[in-house]
């Protein structure tokens, strides 16, 4: 009886699980590619327990998100970020081998 009294208005409501807007923000193949790059780098960071790679993934996500808004070419910037990280890691490896 209590349930009937407290939920009587719910019967007249219409419910739906349909989403009207995509929360992912993927609108093109380029968006999907950027998303896959971020996901791949995040997985690698997690697998390798690397804070540097996790930070790279965050930077890539920011460039992918805000670079397209500013009208820049995000892939060129992302390639630059990855190249910089590779150079940094190679330098660290060289420094470790000489010690």
- Helix % is 55-70%
As residue ranges, the low-confidence spans are none
What would you call the quaternary organization? single chain
Total count of helical runs of at least 4 residues? 4
Distance between the termini: 78 Å
Q: Report the radius of gyration as a whole number of Å.
A: 23 Å
Strand tally is: 0
Question: Hey, roughly how much beta strand do the residues contain?
Answer: under 5%
Q: What is the N-to-C order of secondary-structure elements (H for helix, E for strand)?
A: HHHH
Tell me what you see in this structure.
The chain has 99 residues and is mainly alpha-helical. Helices cover 70% and strands 0% of the residues. The chain contains four helices and no strands. It has helices at residues 2-6, 29-48, 51-69, 74-98. The longest helix has 25 residues, at 74-98.
Write the layout of secondary structure elements.
Elements: H1 2-6, H2 29-48, H3 51-69, H4 74-98
Summarize this structure briefly.
The chain is mostly helical. It has helices spanning 2-6, 29-48, 51-69, 74-98.
């Amino acid at each position: 009886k209590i349930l009937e009294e407290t939920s009587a208005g719910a019967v007249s409501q219409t419910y739906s699980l349909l989403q009207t807007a995509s929360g992912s923000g993927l609108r093109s193949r380029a968006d999907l590619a950027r998303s896959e790059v971020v996901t791949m780098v995040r997985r690698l960071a997690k697998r390798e327990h690397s804070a540097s790679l996790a930070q790279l993934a965050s930077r890539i996500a920011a460039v992918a998100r805000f670079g397209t808004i500013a009208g820049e070419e995000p892939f060129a910037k992302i390639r630059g970020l990855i190249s910089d990280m590779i150079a940094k890691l190679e330098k660290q490896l060289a420094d470790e081998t000489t010690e």
